[in-house]
Hints:
Number of helices: 2
Helix content: 25-40%
Number of domains: 1
Order of helices and strands: HEEEH
Amino acid sequence: MIxxxxxxxxxxxxxxxxxxxxxxxxxxxxxxxxxxxxxVMCLQDGRHFRGFIGDRGYLAKLLxxxxxxxxxxxxxxx
Length: 78
C-alpha cells in the first residue's frame, strides 16, 4: 500500500524508466553550437536514460526564473 509521503515524493520527481531512481536535471551546452540544453539523466546510471530539452523559449524562461532565484514548482510553467 502506498502512503501519502510516497505519493508526494513521486509527484515531485521524475523517475528513470529502467531502475526507478530519480532523474537529474542539469544545464548543458552543445559541443559545437554552444547552445544551452536541459539535460535529463538517471542519477544511478546515466546510460539508463539520458535526454535533452532544447526548446529556446522554454529554456529562456527557465533561465530567467533561475537568475531571479525562483525555481518552478508544482507544475509552474516557466
